Amino acid sequence: MMLLTLAALIILTNQGATPGVKELAAAFARATGNTVTVIQVEGDALEQRINSGADLVTGNPETIQPLVENGKVVASSVTPFVVAGLGLSVRAGAPKPDISTVDKYKAALLAAKSIGYSRGCSGTHAEEGIAQLGLTEQLKARTIRTAGGPVTDYLARGDVEIGIQQTNIMVGVPGTDYVGPLPGSLNKPCPSSVALLTTSKNADAARAMITFMVSKEAAPLLRKTHVEPAKR
């Protein structure tokens, strides 16, 4: 995979994709000699960071599509590469609820004094699952939609009793204990795609990185971070 001209790539990542992208970036750098810098940035700061210079961006469909429409990314380069399932964590040392079945998960939600989930894809899917269980009104007063930082930050501070987010950004976080994946159809994963920015000065190397991110060599690296490669 050695390229003739070495490049210094910058990849802007969404929170849910960051652990996997870091694994892939390190492997790509070892294989090609390029340097790859991974910067997690989302929300209002993303466009500003794009304007400052970068090569690739990852995100959920609702993030990538506006970038396509605004001419920020090359439409033909948009490539799904990973899906991240949802899990539940508690503060370190707290009792771990049984969420092994839909009924037990429902009981755990009803028993919790407070529940936290994000405003992004995982939070949307968690909220849809709560609605599917018919618990929206019952849990509304106990629910916090987090803003800024992962849900595990809120758990570690004791701001919420249980938290729901992508498993890959919850496992092994200090101050929290991971309980397990959400059960059955309530575990609706969050997809992420990667795309080439139109302002990239390293387009050839960036396209090679995209190819690597969906290669068979990438799959075990992604799974190390508790996500699954996107089906192709």
Description:
- This protein has 232 residues and is an alpha/beta fold.
- The protein has 2 domains: 8-83 and 191-229, Periplasmic binding protein-like II (D-Maltodextrin-Binding Protein, domain 2, 3-Layer(aba) Sandwich), CATH 3.40.190.10; 86-186, Periplasmic binding protein-like II (D-Maltodextrin-Binding Protein, domain 2, 3-Layer(aba) Sandwich).
- Helices cover 36% and strands 24% of the residues.
- The chain is built from 9 helices and 11 strands.
- The protein has helices at residues 18-32, 44-52, 61-69, 102-111, 121-132, 136-139, 151-157, 203-213, 218-223, and strands at residues 8-13, 35-40, 56-59, 79-84, 86-91, 115-118, 143-146, 162-166, 176-181, 190-196, 228-229.
- A 6-stranded mixed sheet has the order 2-1-3-10-4-11, sandwiched between helices.
- The protein is elongated, with a radius of gyration of 19 Å.
- The mean pLDDT is 95.
Task: Report a brief summary of the structure.
The chain has 232 residues and is α/β, with parallel strands linked by helices.
Record the SSE blueprint.
Blueprint (H helix, E strand, L loop, with lengths): L7 E6 L4 H15 L2 E6 L3 H9 L3 E4 L1 H9 L9 E6 L1 E6 L10 H10 L3 E4 L2 H12 L3 H4 L3 E4 L4 H7 L4 E5 L9 E6 L8 E7 L6 H11 L4 H6 L4 E2 L3
Parallel strand pairs: 1-2, 1-3, 6-7, 6-8
Antiparallel strand pairs: 3-10, 4-10, 4-11, 5-8, 5-9
